Amino acid sequence: MSLAPTLLQRLKNPDVFRSIDRPPGLPKFEGAATFDVFNPASGEVIATLPAMGQAEAAEAIRTAYEAQGRWAGLTARERSEYLWRWHQLIVTHTDDLAAILTAEMGKPLAEAKSEVSHAAAYLQWYAEEANRIYGETFSAPSNDRRMFVIKQPIGVVGAITPWNFPASMVARKISPALAAGCAVVLKPAEQTPLVAAAMFALAAEAGFPQGVVNIIFAARGDEVGRELCANPKVRKISFTGSTEVGRLLMRQCADQVKKVSLELGGNAPFIVFDDADIDEAVSGAIQAKFRNAGQTCVSANRIYVQDGVHDLFVEKFVRKLADLKVGDGFELGVSVGPLIDGQALSKIEAHLADAVEKGGEVLAGGKRIGTGTFFEPTVLTGVTAEMRIAQEETFGPLAPIIRFTDGDEIIRQANETIYGLAAYFFTSNLKRAWSVAEALEFGMVGMNTGRMSSEAAPFGGVKQSGIGREGSRHGLEEYLEMKYICMGGL
After folding, report:
1. Closest by alpha carbon to 306, among 462, 458, 452, 432?
2. Percent of all residues in the chain with a pLDDT value above 90, rounded to a whole number
3. Which InterPro entries match (predicted)?
4. Residue 21: is its pLDDT beyond 50?
5. What backbone torsions phi and psi does residue 131 show, to the nearest 5 degrees?
6. Candidate list 129, 263, 376, 455, residue with the active-site label
């Protein structure tokens, strides 16, 4: 049976959440308030969900806390097998999950399928990493004692995921937590909760024990977020979203000195030096700027191009925009979908208006398309550091190009931001490649590539772009506590 139509049919009826046949992992919902989930391409209501709050969050946390000890008590191999089964089910249902994702978020169907595959890759990776949680032994100062370290799960984890990658972010947070032996309570973004619900349905099919994976739907996340931060049964918060909300969560966790992992905003520079392969740089910039309609935290936000190749780069970049088709993500050949909502659209228009007022020139695009939240891929030149577009994260298909002369000075400009998530640069000079990669104050650097995310690599930023890392073996460590044991009397 196809997962997508069955799930969406059930989610159109909020009464299902008050029945014993409610979707797996959800606490019972006694309230009356609901909220709608929209397709951003059409404005159609595709589901009506319960607006859960503090009471449901507390119940989900209690359930996870009761399951925590049993889950942590399993062997690493047993936890690995659950993750493997979940991975295989997601692979089997890729088309259905991608259809749900496109319906609620708007990204092109091919891109949605790629994201679901990325989510499955995280589950596969941590199914394997579950078996690689190692301790240490140390040389003791005397022969009558032994000293060693073991690693144990931190406990119940509260995970809060964003709307722009609603499948892969769920897997990236939950799979290492489960591998480490932690039970999880997830609050997905209110704009895109459906693919998470579908993934949890598959987790139930994979046989995860009751209470190990729990999900909360909320129209406004602040009430649920406060409960996750304040409840002492939750030992860690993992959040992906804005820097502003990340600061708030840190403050709310401070009284309990609760461990946090934060993947926050970015203001990624994309630097093209005059010795770069221009065709490769253009392709990389298109990918880094317009993937997911520019709605990614690692999107190229400031494109710096050196004098010697500036005009050629701009010419080829603008010409390449003709290959981008904007439209409903379900339409054949579409490569740029809608923005998530009207607020996102207004932000792009505000950044564009500010830049034009201060001397920027629109070379391509610059307008809304139709009556929805579609916006033309846009190229802007004559951009200066004083413009909002150079200082703030735009989160849309707006590419500002900034001309530069001095290679050393541009590194200073690139680093002159409170953010430090991702950076990109293109060069064919090996000496420059190493010096620039080391000088950029960012947690991730793409050298001669516009895309670098992988389940095998650590994802995260420095400065006000976050704390901690996701993915790779380092992502597993975020959910483990180190315990030193000293055994005497030997």
Report:
1. 432
2. 90
3. Ald_DH/histidinol_DH, Ald_DH_C, Ald_DH_CS_GLU, Ald_DH_N, Aldehyde_DH_dom, Aldehyde_DH_Superfamily, Succ_semiAld_DH
4. no
5. -85, 5
6. 263
**Contact between residue 104 and residue 37 where contact means Cβ atoms under 8 Å apart:** yes
The rounded distance, in Å, linking the Cα atoms of 157 and 61 is: 9
Domains and CATH numbers, the chain: 3-264+465-485 (3.40.605.10), 268-454 (3.40.309.10)
- Contact status, residue 14 vs residue 34, Cβ threshold 8 Å: yes
Q: For the residues of 378-418, what is the DSSP string, one character each?
A: EEEES--TTSHHHHS---SSEEEEEEE--HHHHHHHHH-SS
* Bridge partners, 109 (sequence order): none
Look at the alpha carbons of 114, 117, 123, 128 in this order and tell me if their dihedral is positive or negative.
negative
**Position of tokens 């004083």?**
386
Least confident piece of the model among 17-26, 257-266, 279-288: 17-26
Query: Catalytic site residue 136?
Result: no
Note the pLDDT tens digit of each residue in 294-340.
999 999 999 999 999 999 999 999 999 999 999 999 999 999 999 99
The pTM for the full model equals 0.94
Picking from 15, 4, 9, 6, the residue whose alpha carbon sits closest to that of residue 50 is 15
Q: Which pLDDT tens digit goes with each residue over 65-107?
A: 999 999 999 999 999 999 999 999 999 999 999 999 999 999 9
Pairing of strands 300-306, 398-404: parallel
- Please answer whether residues 101 and 115 qualify as being in contact, where contact means their C-beta atoms are separated by less than 8 angstroms: yes
Q: Does residue 20 carry a pLDDT above 60?
A: no
For residues 421 and 400, the answer to whether their CB atoms sit within 8 Å is no
Q: Nearest-CA neighbor of 101 among 116, 123, 122, 91?
A: 116
**Residue 60 and residue 108 in contact, taking contact as beta carbons nearer than 8 Å:** no
Mean pLDDT of the chain: 94
Instruction: Give me the DSSP letters along 475-490.
Output: HHHTTEEEEEEEE---
Give the number of other Cβ atoms within 10 Å of residue 145's Cβ.
Answer: 12
CA dihedral 397, 381, 385, 323 (to 10 degrees): 20
| Mean pLDDT, residues 351-375 | 94
Task: Please name which of 411, 427, 417, 335 lies closest in space to residue 374, comparing C-alpha atoms.
Answer: 335
Secondary structure class of 82 (helix, strand, coil): helix
pLDDT in tens, 385-433: 999 999 999 999 999 999 999 999 999 999 999 999 999 999 999 999 9
Complete DSSP assignment for 339-371: -SSHHHHHHHHHHHHHHHHTT-EEEE--SEETT
